Amino acid sequence: MRLVPGQFVVHPHHGPAIVLDRQVRQLKGKDVAYVELEIQDKGLRISVPESMVKDIGVRDVSSHTQVRKLMSLLAKPSEYVEEQWSRRLKAFQEKLATGDLPRVAEVVRDLHRRQAEKDLSMAERTLYRDAVEILAAEVAIVLDISVVEAEDVMVQAIDGTPLKDLGLDRGKDSKQAA
């Protein structure tokens, strides 16, 4: 994956980022190419060795089609959720740690529905907030809306609002540019 300044990408643990610069640094007497990323909405800057970008899991921003699929996934019935809170929490943490957007969407969906039924533990609330943050940040970029609006779209999808009513049934499929 070749990254260029101004390009939007997604870091698996930090979320959407913009490529700021490419630099070559000396490391143990060897030239090593780095990409500097600025994490959106966090003001965090990180440098990633170009040779490790794929291994770390930095990827392109989702397409409009992928976001439609995520909204459909949010609308699906929840899968089995472990009753014992420690096992449930561990399962959700493992899904979130993958950085895989469909798995993150499953965490958002299942914890949102569980929260509607009964109170979440403090750890589950934190995990839910983290998952919503990750998913909403990318949905906002793809749909060119605010993060708050993206969260609202996600909740509506979970609650069963049809894609056409969310404005996502169109054939539009373009990646956002800077």
UniProtKB/TrEMBL annotation:
<dbReference type="InterPro" id="IPR003711">
    <property type="entry name" value="CarD-like/TRCF_RID"/>
</dbReference>
<protein>
    <submittedName>
        <fullName>CarD family transcriptional regulator</fullName>
    </submittedName>
</protein>
<feature type="domain" description="CarD-like/TRCF RNAP-interacting">
    <location>
        <begin position="2"/>
        <end position="112"/>
    </location>
</feature>
<dbReference type="Pfam" id="PF21095">
    <property type="entry name" value="CarD_C"/>
</dbReference>
<dbReference type="InterPro" id="IPR048792">
    <property type="entry name" value="CarD_C"/>
</dbReference>
<dbReference type="InterPro" id="IPR042215">
    <property type="entry name" value="CarD-like_C"/>
</dbReference>
<dbReference type="InterPro" id="IPR036101">
    <property type="entry name" value="CarD-like/TRCF_RID_sf"/>
</dbReference>
<dbReference type="Pfam" id="PF02559">
    <property type="entry name" value="CarD_TRCF_RID"/>
</dbReference>
<dbReference type="InterPro" id="IPR052531">
    <property type="entry name" value="CarD-like_regulator"/>
</dbReference>
